[in-house]
Recover the amino acids of this structure.
């Protein structure tokens, strides 16, 4: 099993709409609005690294209101 965290920057005023959409993305187990450099953090759980990349690169980055993402894969 692969665990990853996807940090999401949103356009101004879009955090609530984006977090709702992120929660609907396949393999996203949790998503939260946070304070700091990023606006949303999503936890992705998948069978393969490819599935994590699919969730972050194809699905989350394509959402309306997403400005940027960074993906961190857990090593433990």
């Amino acid at each position: 099993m692969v665990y990853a965290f996807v940090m999401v920057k949103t356009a101004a005023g879009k955090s609530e709409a984006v977090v709702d959409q992120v929660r609907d993305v396949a393999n996203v187990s949790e998503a939260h609005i946070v304070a700091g450099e990023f606006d949303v953090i999503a936890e992705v759980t998948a069978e393969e690294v490819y599935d994590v990349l699919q969730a972050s690169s194809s699905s989350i980055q394509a959402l309306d209101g997403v400005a940027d993402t960074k993906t961190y894969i857990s090593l433990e």
About this structure: Residues 2-73 form a domain with the Alpha-Beta Plaits fold (CATH 3.30.70.920). The radius of gyration is 11 Å.
